[in-house]
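Tokens in:
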């Protein structure tokens, strides 16, 4: 999709002005580590602000220690975990929209995805509608969490969520669709010399840090 070069430049400049100076060099994402991506995505469902998002990453790191590997990449291990044991390992008693424990949602999402043929991160290089349905069938997990999960895995073409679309709209001062926002962000990422998933992750955290909200609905 062709975009107005002025829009791309304006969006890139707005991002560069709004985000912390070191965001491009900060490590992030869970590429090749599907277990950690799933844990972090689910624990970020109701996170508010940078400190809580950091806590989600810290909990994911605890699972890595439990597994005794820096690259936990087999959803079958999470699928077999007891939700009670997992909550203890993650040091998390988080409750998702709908009232279910996050640890329960993590193990059930892992199980559903494994049944749908997803075991390792590489299996989601081309995510399908069936994969999305398997994930969002878990109570408390919705499209935004699915998109965040893919974003953490570094899957190109991930659609920006509603807050990120709103950020693009406000930066340009006009209405944009989700599809248009994705293409604009892809091209802004090229201008900023980062990958699209890196940019989406940075904006995901930025928009939650400055516009937190709570909801009882799956996200």
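Residues out:
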């Amino acid at each position: 999709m062709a975009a107005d070069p002025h829009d791309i430049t304006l969006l890139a400049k707005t991002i560069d002005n709004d985000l912390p100076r070191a965001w491009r060099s900060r490590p992030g994402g869970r590429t090749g580590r599907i277990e950690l991506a799933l844990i972090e995505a689910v624990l970020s469902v109701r996170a508010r602000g940078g400190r809580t998002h950091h806590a989600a990453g810290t909990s994911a790191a605890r699972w890595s220690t439990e597994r005794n590997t820096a690259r936990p990449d087999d959803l079958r291990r999470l699928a077999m975990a007891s939700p009670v044991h997992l909550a203890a390992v993650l040091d998390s008693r988080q409750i998702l929209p709908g009232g279910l424990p996050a640890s329960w949602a993590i193990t059930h999402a892992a199980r559903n995805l494994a049944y749908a043929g997803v075991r390792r991160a590489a299996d989601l290089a081309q995510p399908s509608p069936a994969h999305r349905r398997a994930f969002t069938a878990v109570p408390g997990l919705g499209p935004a969490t699915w998109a965040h999960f893919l974003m953490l895995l570094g899957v190109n073409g991930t659609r920006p969520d509603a807050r990120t679309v709103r950020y693009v709209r406000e930066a340009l001062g006009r209405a944009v669709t989700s599809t248009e926002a994705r293409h604009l962000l892809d091209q802004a990422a090229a201008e900023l010399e980062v990958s699209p998933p890196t940019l989406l992750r940075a904006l995901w955290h930025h928009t939650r840090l400055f516009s937190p909200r709570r909801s009882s609905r799956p996200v």
